[in-house]
Design a protein that fits this description.
7 helices; homotrimer
């Protein structure tokens, strides 16, 4: 009875910062939202790169964080394929192929997800370790939270994916 | 009451085209099927390589798709380990080690899964982007479907894995 | 009614032997345990490296297993980041950054998980293929079991992750 009243829910950990995995996550998220499901995406580790702003530079303190945040700058436009990146050519080609079949880009998918009510949550722990401040994220990001928040969402979900 | 009558169900997204991850997916699938569970495997992105035919060449239009489908030819016999592939030697060794303990090969696992009623579904969206036609897949593949189909299966499942 | 009496349960397959993925798995595990959830971690393929002893050498028979277990020695202190390992420098830096914000190390997390009752289970099939004997594992490992055991745990779980 109670179950029948529950909205179906989907939770995803986005651990990876690869373009292909990010695309898979957002295609699943927007499809689920269009089916009326509640969706929470929890971005952690390299996954934070997916939701970082494309513009400006990240401010970091100390040489280690400066180095990390230069190499690991992130932002949707800097994501690379996990395979066949080929110094950018493979990734460029994949974007072209997606355009030819009228697939939305990763940026369009992030905007769509946000407009459909998908919650985009950044992991506080990773932000702390990697020295990523809250203003590094794009405006679609709903909030920052920890692993306990993710587990609370997962416990209410029909399916939970680690991507 | 209703729940007790439901068959336990397992759904997997096979995103990866690595031999080791494909093996893990099919070992879990066939074990679950042998326990009486319903199993659906949804192959997407590089995961399509696992279920492509080994024989013949893939027909593609345009130089980008021709290039992609040459580099990313796929087929169970061309899958490589995610680690220690070492230009084929590591992958060859792993197959040898599996044979020594009488483990089935990836091809045998795919056949077994099919005979046990595991549904092998190819992602239509990836097929569209990567220019993979339906006749590129081996006969064990049950159907082509999109992310909405996967989510429907996941919503009925006890566990859903992203591999 | 019955459901309300069930303890919430979380099951994870740890397939990866990367330090970053292992950290994510143990942070989730210890957080879940601290929330009163039952947690089972099932280590398979490269994931076995996470729970191998750091000390001594692994005994293996035959040149292939000797070679594999030399290259793939494992042990928490030998795990590398999936990205930016940079011949050890990136991994060393990440450990430093974690220390600066007082995050526990992977070793401390494994001990914590064990003390909190998290079950650490090694996959018998992988042990067989890779010639890893039971005494290769650290004392926190609870038992060895196969895929059927993992599926039994997953069927009782609120969430199941493949990491």
């Amino acid at each position: 009875m109670v179950q029948a009243q529950c909205k179906e829910k989907l939770t995803m950990v986005v651990f990876s910062g690869d373009l292909d995995r990010a695309l898979a996550a957002f295609i699943i998220a927007t499809t689920a939202a269009s089916m009326g499901m509640e969706v929470t995406m929890f971005f952690t580790f390299w996954g934070l790169n997916v939701i970082k702003k494309n513009e400006g530079s990240l401010k970091s303190q100390g040489w280690m964080l400066k180095m990390l945040n230069t190499m690991n700058r992130g932002g949707s436009k800097r994501l690379a394929l996990s395979k066949f990146h080929m110094m950018g050519m493979g990734t460029w080609m994949m974007k072209k192929l997606m355009k030819e079949v009228n697939m939305p880009t990763i940026d369009e998918l992030i905007t769509m997800a946000n407009e459909m009510g998908v919650k985009l949550v950044a992991c506080t722990t990773t932000c702390g370790v990697m020295g990523v401040s809250e203003d590094s994220f794009r405006s679609e990001v709903t909030s920052l939270a920890g692993a306990a928040y993710f587990l609370g969402e997962a416990n209410e979900s029909k399916a939970t994916l680690f991507i």
